[in-house]
Design the sequence.
C-alpha cells in the first residue's frame, strides 16, 4: 500500500512542475496571435517543411489608414489610445465577418488582411460563394467607415481559388510560415484590379461559381469579374459560425481539466486516509491520464511560442494587458525585397533566405516581423527598436544590417535581384485586429511608399533602371559624411547599382555635390 502512495505522491509532484512550466503563457493566450493553419499543423516535422492545400484566398486592402495615423499621431498622448480604438474597431468589424464565415486570417500586413478558406473536392463552389457573401457583407458594413476625426476608411477585396503551398521555416528561436502557389498570385492580381468598395474575382474562382446567383460585370479585359451583389433569393441564405468538430476543437487548459473531470485538488491522496489498493490504482491511472493531457498542452504551447513576436511573449509572460504595447515609438524598418529565379524547391530556398537574414537581424538585435512570397519574389520586413530590443543606435544597426544582408544575398544564385529599403522615424506599434485573432506590428507612413517601390521594382520618375537599388531614409540625427562613407562603398561592392537616400530638402543641395563624386543617385519624393 505504501508503494502506490509513494508513486502517486511522486507523480503529483512531477505533474505540478510540468504545470508550472506552461503556466507563464497558456495556450488560450497564444491562440489569437496565430492562424488555425499553424494551430493544427504537425510541428513534429523537421524544418523546413511544407503543407499543401486547396482553398480560397481573400486579400483585403484598406484605404485611409495612412491619413488616420498621420492625424492621430499629431495629437497628444490621448491620440494613441484613440488611434488604437479606431483601428481595432474597424478591423474587428472586418475580421468578425471573416471568422463568422469560417475563414482563417493568415496575416495582417499593414493595411491588408490575407484570409484563407480550405476546400475539399466536393465543396469548392459552396465555399467560394460563401466567401463572396462574406466580402459583400464587409463592403456593406465597412465600405464607408467614418471616423471621429473626419477620415473615411474603405476596403477593396480580391478573391482567388486554387492550390496553395505553405512553407514552414525557422530555427530554435523563431519560426514563420509563407504561402505560395497559383492562388496566392491570382489573389494579388485580383486585388490589384480593385478600386475601393469593390470585390473582384480571379477567373478560376469565378468559373467555380453559379453565375446566376450574382449580379456582376466583367472587367475590360474580360477575364476578371467584379461582383456587385447577390440576387434577392440568395440573400436570405446567410452563413453562420459552425461549432468546431471534435477533431478541430482547440486544446486549452480548461478543456483538458474538463475532459479529465479531475482537478489537482481532487487527485490528492493522504497516507493517513485508509483507501484500498484498487482505489489507489484508479487515482494513479487518472493522474497518468491528466499528466498526458498536460504534457500535450505544454508541447502545443512550446511550439506555438515560436510563431509569436518576442515583444508579445514578454507581455504575456508578465501577464500584462496587450494594450500596453500600443504606442508611438521610434523605430527603424528594413525592407528586403528579392526577385527569385528558381522556384523548383521554394521551401528549401525560403529556409536558406530565412537563415541568411535572421542571423544578421539577431546579431543587430532586430525583429523579423513578416515574410511575404509572391509571383516575382519575396519580401522580409525587419523592425529595430521594438519593446525589449530598443538600442541607442538602432538606426545604425538597421543600416549595417541592410548592407551585410545585401552582401550575403549577392552570393545566392537563386536570387536574381535584391532591393533593400531602410526607413527610420516615429511609428505606431501595437496589437491590431480582433479579440479572437490579432497580430503585433509596427506601422509607419513611409512603409507604404517603400513597399510599393520595392515590390514593383520601379524607379523614381523612371530615372532608375529596374536593377538592384538600396533605398535609405535618413533624418537630421545622422551625420552626412558618416552616412555616405558607411553606405555607398559597401553597397556598391555588394552589387547595388544605385543608392537612393531619402533626406530633407535642405540637405539635397549639399548632397548632390557629394554624390557626383561617389556615383550615388539622390531621389526626390
Sequence:
Amino acid at each position: 500500500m505504501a508503494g502506490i502512495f509513494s508513486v502517486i505522491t511522486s507523480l503529483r509532484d512531477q505533474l505540478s512542475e510540468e504545470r508550472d512550466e506552461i503556466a507563464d503563457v497558456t495556450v488560450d493566450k497564444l491562440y489569437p496571435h496565430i492562424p488555425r493553419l499553424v494551430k493544427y499543423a504537425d510541428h513534429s516535422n523537421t524544418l523546413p517543411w511544407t503543407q499543401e492545400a486547396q482553398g480560397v484566398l481573400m486579400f483585403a486592402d484598406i484605404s485611409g489608414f495612412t491619413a488616420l495615423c498621420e492625424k492621430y499621431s499629431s495629437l497628444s498622448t490621448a491620440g494613441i489610445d484613440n488611434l488604437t480604438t479606431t483601428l481595432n474597431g474597424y478591423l474587428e468589424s472586418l475580421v468578425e465577418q471573416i471568422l463568422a464565415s469560417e475563414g482563417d486570417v493568415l496575416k495582417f500586413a499593414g493595411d491588408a488582411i490575407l484570409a484563407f478558406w480550405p476546400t475539399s473536392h466536393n465543396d469548392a463552389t459552396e465555399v467560394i460563394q460563401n466567401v463572396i457573401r462574406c466580402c459583400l457583407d464587409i463592403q456593406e458594413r465597412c465600405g464607408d467607415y467614418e471616423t471621429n476625426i473626419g477620415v473615411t476608411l474603405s476596403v477593396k477585396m480580391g478573391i482567388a481559388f486554387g492550390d496553395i503551398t505553405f512553407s514552414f521555416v525557422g530555427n530554435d528561436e523563431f519560426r514563420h510560415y509563407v504561402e505560395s502557389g497559383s492562388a496566392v498570385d491570382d489573389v494579388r492580381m485580383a486585388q490589384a484590379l480593385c478600386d475601393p468598395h469593390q470585390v473582384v474575382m480571379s477567373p478560376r474562382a469565378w468559373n467555380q461559381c453559379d453565375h446566376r446567383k450574382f449580379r456582376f460585370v466583367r472587367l475590360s479585359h474580360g477575364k476578371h469579374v467584379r461582383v456587385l451583389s447577390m440576387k434577392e433569393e440568395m440573400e436570405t441564405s446567410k452563413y453562420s459560425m459552425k461549432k468546431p468538430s471534435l477533431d478541430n476543437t482547440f486544446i486549452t487548459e480548461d478543456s483538458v481539466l474538463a475532459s479529465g473531470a479531475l482537478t489537482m485538488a481532487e487527485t490528492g491522496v493522504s497516507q493517513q486516509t485508509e483507501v484500498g489498493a484498487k482505489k489507489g490504482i484508479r487515482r494513479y491511472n487518472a493522474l497518468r491520464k491528466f499528466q498526458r493531457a498536460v504534457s500535450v498542452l505544454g508541447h502545443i504551447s512550446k511550439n506555438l511560442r515560436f510563431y509569436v513576436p518576442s515583444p508579445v511573449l514578454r507581455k504575456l509572460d508578465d501577464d500584462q494587458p496587450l494594450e500596453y504595447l500600443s504606442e508611438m515609438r521610434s523605430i527603424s524598418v528594413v525592407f528586403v525585397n528579392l526577385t527569385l529565379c528558381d522556384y523548383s524547391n521554394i521551401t528549401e530556398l525560403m529556409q536558406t533566405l530565412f537563415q541568411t537574414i535572421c542571423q544578421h537581424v539577431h546579431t543587430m538585435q532586430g525583429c523579423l516581423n513578416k515574410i511575404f512570397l509572391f509571383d516575382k519574389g519575396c519580401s522580409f520586413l525587419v523592425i529595430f527598436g521594438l519593446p525589449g530590443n530598443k538600442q541607442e543606435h538602432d538606426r545604425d544597426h538597421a543600416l549595417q544590417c541592410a548592407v551585410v544582408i545585401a552582401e550575403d544575398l549577392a552570393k545566392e544564385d537563386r536570387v536574381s535581384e535584391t532591393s533593400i529599403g531602410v526607413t527610420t522615424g516615429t511609428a505606431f506599434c501595437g496589437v491590431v485586429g480582433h479579440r479572437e485573432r490579432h497580430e503585433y506590428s509596427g506601422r509607419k507612413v513611409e512603409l507604404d511608399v517603400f513597399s510599393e517601390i520595392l515590390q514593383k521594382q520601379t524607379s523614381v520618375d523612371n530615372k532608375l533602371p529596374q536593377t538592384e537599388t538600396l533605398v535609405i531614409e535618413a533624418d537630421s540625427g545622422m551625420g552626412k559624411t558618416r552616412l555616405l562613407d558607411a553606405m555607398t562603398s559597401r553597397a556598391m561592392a555588394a552589387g547595388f547599382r544605385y543608392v537612393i537616400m531619402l533626406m530633407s530638402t535642405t540637405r539635397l543641395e549639399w548632397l548632390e555635390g557629394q554624390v557626383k563624386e561617389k556615383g550615388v543617385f539622390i531621389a526626390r519624393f
User: Anything to note?
Assistant: The chain has a mean pLDDT of 75. DSSP finds 17 helices and 16 strands in the chain. The two ends are 83 Å apart (CA to CA).
